[in-house]
Amino acid sequence: MIVKLTPKNVLQMIRDGVNPLEKTFGELESYFAENPQSYEEEAEDYSRFLYQLEQKKDITENERKAYIGIYRMVHQIEREDGAAVGAVVNIGAELQFSTLLAASRSRRTSHMDWKVSDDTGLTQEVRLSENNISEQISLASKEASGTGNMKFMLNGAITLGTMDGANVEIVNEVGAENAQIFGLSSDEVIRFENEGGYDPMEIFNILKDFRSYAEAQRKIDERYRDTNGWAKTVMTNTAKAGKFSSDRTIEEYAKEIWNLKKVKVTLD
Asked: Is the pTM of this model over 0.85?
């Protein structure tokens, strides 16, 4: 069913008032059967297709919001690599997008997953750790990524983010190969702000980073399947987190910002 939710088909569904979260797979199959789509050559991805629509002013704001919402739903379900399907089948719920999305979201709060085996078709238990990925998606140059990502890093989470704020320091410590960076650089953001050339109708350039963000999500999914490589990256993140200890940070602030000198205290 997901393969039928191409960018063009999704837009048509929105304009027909069809919400995939409110329909069973059977109802959606009937919709596609009664409304054969024109399978012309598609734009290469969701974000590119949306960009083209916006350039032609061929999409309303409500349609745009619905389109992005469906894309996020599809992407979240696909990221589960069958785990959401397994969870729904295991509890005996009806297989539809609303139950798959609920399973995808609830999975993140639990160590337990159920996945459909490609070999047997039966559900099998899969154990995953929490906080595998630390998403820090602020626009570069805005200094919005702070200490939260350092805590995730200490626990082995891989940073998926822009080169903003503390993300820069983390990448300097672990190496770019042990993070997943996307989006505009600070220099590019500043150049757009000063020279123009891109008008996303908002100051945070969300759509400019969107395509790169989607690609970063695809890459992080591929990396997760390489268990040895993922384990190495996790251990590297934890091992390199020492620089961000409060002792080092406070001492650096005292010396370089507050201009304070150490005072030795002798206890009787």
From this structure: no
